[in-house]
Amino acid sequence: MKKIGLRFWLILCSVLPALLVALLLGSYFNHKQQQESALHLRERAANIALSLAISSQELLQQQQLQTIKLLLEQAHRLNSPLVISISLFNAKGDLLLTSNTQHDLSAEAWHQNTAKPTHLSYLDQQQHLLVYQPLLKTNPLRDIEPGYLLLQFEQQQLLLEQKIGFLHSSLLVALALFLALCLAFYLIQKLQPEIHRIKKQMQQLMDGQYRVRAYPLGIRELDQLQTGIMQLADRLAQFEQDMQQNIEQVTSDLQQSMEQLEIQNIQLDFAKRKALEDNRQKSDFLAKMSHELRTPLNAVIGFTRQLLKTPLSHHQSDYLHTIQKSANSLLNLVNDVLDFSRLEEGRMSINPEPFSLRDTLNDATELLAANAFDKQLELVLIVDPECPDDVIADPARLNQVLMNIAGNAIKFTEHGSVVIRVTATTLNEEQTLIHISVKDTGRGINKEKQARLFDGISPIEQNDQQTGSGLGLLISKRLVNAMQGNIGFESSPGEGSTFWFTIKCQRHQLTVAEPLPLELLEQKTVLYFEPQQYSREATLQLLKSWGMHVTVCATKAQLQQAISQNAHYAIGLLGRAVAINQVNEIISLVQRLKTHCQHMYLLVNTLSPNLREALLSSGANACLPKPAHMRKLALTLAQPYHQPFLEQIAPAKPSLYPLKVLTVDDNEANLKLINTLLRERVQQLDSARDGAEAWQKTTQHVYDIIFMDINMPVMDGISACQRIRQSSLNEHTPIIAVTAHAMDGERARLISLGFSEFLTKPLDEKMLHYTLQEFCQLQKNPQQVPDPHLTTIPLIDWPAALQRAAGKPELAQEMLLLLIKSLPQSDKQIRQAITDNDQQVLLHALHKLHGACCYTGVPRLKNLLEALETQLKKGAHIKLLEPELYELDDVIQMLLEADTSMPEELLQASNITVAQA
């Protein structure tokens, strides 16, 4: 804003009041003068009109028109030039006489439109004043209406006088303004020197000259201002002196402090270098120690796995599994420490490469399934159909981050589900942002832990039973940041958590994954039954993306309705949560649906080969673990449309197993039934009629498995189970609860109390057989003493090969020869990957060879490849897999030297089967 000077203010304060006063007074007097002039003109016009009206009235009555005309002309001359014309009109408005014949007012429009006047009236025009004067009546009752006079007066003189008055007023205003300006300039000339002196004093203060000279001023206020300036100058001089002293003191102190800081900086520099060196040595030590620890762990884990392949007792197998589990936990901890040390040193590299996103995600989810099954959790992978599959990123690091986050979700979730969702956002033509979220229904994370969740190792609460290195999320965060992504979570205590992370990927133009036989599945009708919501959503989305017509059912009522509406389906897909006590129910359901479905498949939440084998015996074509691996599911569903299956041979009659079993029940009939069923399966059988007697027997004998009733006198089954677990010879023996109470949640409650499994009454032979297979180390031929050379898996299983070739010997032999022909090239790739220490190349080579084994009868090679592939996907180092890799090399060499001709008896049997068909 522009500031206004004192000169302007003085002029304004002097001129503005004078101007306002002059304008008001001039306007007032000018207005009064104009009013008086107009009033004077009207009074004069009224006098002339009245006198003429009186004179004309008498003469008009006497009909002396000539005299009236002379009178009007005489009045016109006497008042000229004020009067322009005087006209006499009769009562009808007709002109009788006029003093100025050149101005005939009767023809004017304003006159014709004007009403007849009844009294003296005026009509103002721009230049003239018209006066209407009616003639007077001498006898109002007798005389008719008289006429009237119209006088036209000139107003030019009046206007001139008004202009002269306005000019006088303007001159008066100008004079007032002039006098005000003179006064203002006088005041300015008076104040300007004093103000200049004060400005000069202020400038001296601003320049640091505090000895200011005093000037005599003629104005009291300015004298007071000058006195204040002089006092201010004295104070500033005193402040400057004090400040100079303080500055000198502070400068001296600062110089000393700078010298001390310089010394401290040198010391800090030495300390920093020492800390960096110590940190480097610590990282080197961690890396070396991790390597040194992995070397003996390699032997422990490798030879433990080798030892588990030999015939062992129940306790020996239990001890070896404990050793293997502890060694794997220690190996995971060592891997976390090694990754952390690499991250600190900046040696954790990101190696982008083309890969199949869906295969990688399905492989990772498949590895997580075992832990989810142990806790009866629903594990689901849902990939958006719009998400690209062929991308360029680091699949190993992506798999590591997903395993860390999803593994934590499973670890801290006791019941419910863990859902992995994958979506993609297109950034441009070449780049895609992959978004992966893991939602669980666990206990959630409190606000105190949320702030430091990604900081690494954090203290574990006393009531927290979960353990771990605490480095997984820290490593995941750094890996995600290295892949140009972000990581975060949302959690509420008691409501679960949702962890998410994003990575930036390049799109790959070529297809990396092996093609799926989806053309064989198009337009196939599918009857899909799945009670679990998220599993149903994921599998349904997958089946529809393959072009299949799916009828989905969530309840048995919907299933019954679907069967009644369509009695035949090409494929039946049954998804169920499996426990031993539910096997018979699932088998019954499979056999019921098989009459309506050409091919029947199971999706179950178990990896137990015994349970899956039992379910396959019901007539199902295949049994896959949940969540269904996309590739395995597609290949399994499409397999019947390559070649028809060979009907399975009926299983042989079961023999007695070398097991010692204890049965406990207070009911004589129930005890007799279970003993009768078990005597057909096991060699030794003991019985007890209450929990106390059972506990007494377990303190004297070692049993392979115990079947325990719950409701019993003296000591119930729960108390007996807890006593056996605490103090007996059977602390680790499987104890199976047997009860008629099949309420929801009963199984989970009993397992939490120490039981290994839960069976409902009434029992049957199949249920007991499945239980023995699941919890006991059963041999294929229980009557014989197992021999390591006799019980090994066969190198070539011709019956299995014949089954996969739809009973065609030529096709089975041809497929085996194709596999053996590809072995040298595969062996070369595997050896080169081991030499280069490249886990990804090795995993790809093993996966490719594993896929080729699925259609031939080489179970030993297939199982070995499956174990190696699983360990590599879990992140196991190549050096830790040396025993299995050596064994793989031996198996390949044995196959190259093996006899590939089919036995004559199998060849004849297959020909007979084909002929009968």
From TrEMBL:
Give TM segment ranges: 6-29, 166-188
Q: Which Gene3D superfamilies match?
A: 1.10.287.130, 3.40.50.2300, Histidine kinase-like ATPase, C-terminal domain, HPT domain
Q: Which UniProt keywords apply?
A: Coiled coil, Kinase, Membrane, Phosphoprotein, Transferase, Transmembrane, Transmembrane helix, Two-component regulatory system
| HPt domain ranges (all copies) | 808-909
| E.C. designation(s) | 2.7.13.3
Q: Which residues carry this modification: Phosphohistidine?
A: H847
Where in this chain does the entry annotate a coiled-coil region?
Answer: 222-274
Q: What is its main location?
A: membrane
Where in this chain does the record put each HAMP domain? Answer: 195-241
Q: Extract the PROSITE patterns matched here.
A: HAMP, HIS_KIN, HPT, RESPONSE_REGULATORY
Histidine kinase domain ranges (all copies): 288-507
Record PTM 4-aspartylphosphate, positions in chain: D709
> Do you know which SMART domains this protein is assigned to?
HATPase_c, HisKA, REC
Q: Which GO terms describe its molecular function?
A: kinase activity
Pfam families assigned to the protein according to its UniProt record, in alphabetical order: HATPase_c, HisKA, Hpt, Response_reg, sCache_4
Top-rank taxon, per record: Bacteria
Looking up CDD domains in the UniProt record yields: HATPase_EvgS-ArcB-TorS-like, HisKA, REC_hyHK_CKI1_RcsC-like
What are the Response regulatory domain coordinates in residue numbering? 525-641, 660-776
Cell location: Membrane
Reaction equations catalysed: ATP + protein L-histidine = ADP + protein N-phospho-L-histidine
Q: What is this protein called?
A: histidine kinase
Natural source organism: Alishewanella tabrizica
